[in-house]
Each structure stands twice: as C-alpha cells, then as structure tokens.
Design a protein that fits this description.
By secondary structure, this protein is an all-alpha fold. The chain has a domain at 36-117. The termini are far apart. Helices cover 54% and strands 0% of the residues. The protein contains 4 helices and no strands.
C-alpha cells in the first residue's frame, strides 16, 4: 500500500491533511466545483459597488479641494476687510454669502478698537510745540540776580 492511499492503514491519523485528489476525480469537482451563477453575480455587484464608492470618494475629495481653493481666493480678495474664521460654508455660494457677515464683524471690531484707542477730549487747550516749557523764559523783566539764578537752575546747579 502507498502512504497517500485513502484505504491505507498507516494514514489513520485524524490530524493529518486529507489525501490530495486530482481535479479530474469526482469528489474534488464536487468540493472545488465551478462557481455558481449567483456567486459570480454577487462578485460582479461587489466589484461594481466598490468602483462606484471609490469614484464617489474621489469626486468628494476633488469638490473639497475646489471649495478650499475658492475660500482661499475669497480670503485673498478681501484681505484686511474680513474676519477669516467667519468665512465658511459647504458650497461656494455659502462661502460667498458668509463674506458679508465677516465684513460686518470686521467693521464692528475695527470701530470698537478705534473708539478704545482715541483719546477722550481734554479740557486743556492744545499748546503749540514752540511754547514748550523747556524754552528760555523772557529775561527782559528779570533783575540781574534773577537772571543769574535762572541760568544756574537750568544748568542743574
């Protein structure tokens, strides 16, 4: 008897792999049989669904890239006039509509900053730069002693 013969007494180990059969034998054809039409149809549908999903994902990625490019262009066009965080939307029309909101918010912020940084009106009169207290006082009305004291005071003595 041969070791691969299924009637062999030496091949009684249950953990041993089953004997190899040729494709021409009847049990192998039954186990490995031709795929059924239903199985082939299901496989074809799965392949088609996978391709459609990949196409949809590619299209969505392309749309997102185009939307991001549109947003960047709108922000560049309105630079210094809008709050960039408020320019948003899921479509180009929504982004364009959000520009007005972002411009209004920017204007409100700019107005409040200007109002906060402007000095309040002062009750003191505006004094010309030529009237600086560092300028020399008129000495015509001073006595000689006052003139000397004034000169010594300016020199830090």
């Amino acid at each position: 008897m041969e070791p691969n013969d299924e009637n062999s007494a030496t091949n009684s180990d249950p953990s041993a792999p089953p004997p190899v059969r040729s494709a021409d034998s009847e049990p192998a054809a039954r186990v490995l049989g031709e795929p059924s039409a239903d199985l082939e149809q299901a496989r074809a549908q799965l392949v088609q669904a996978t391709q459609e999903r990949e196409s949809a994902l590619e299209l969505a990625a392309l749309q997102q890239a185009m939307l991001a490019a549109h947003r960047r262009a709108v922000l560049a066009e309105n630079s210094g006039q809008v709050v960039p965080e408020l320019v948003q939307g899921a479509t180009a029309d929504e982004i364009d509509a959000s520009i007005e909101t972002a411009k209004a918010a920017y204007a409100r912020i700019a107005d409040s900053v200007r109002a906060a940084t402007l000095p309040e009106t002062s009750p003191l009169p505006i004094v010309a730069a030529s009237a600086s207290p560092r300028g020399e006082a008129p000495t015509d009305d001073l006595s000689p002693l006052q003139k000397i004291t004034s000169a010594l005071g300016r020199n830090g003595r």
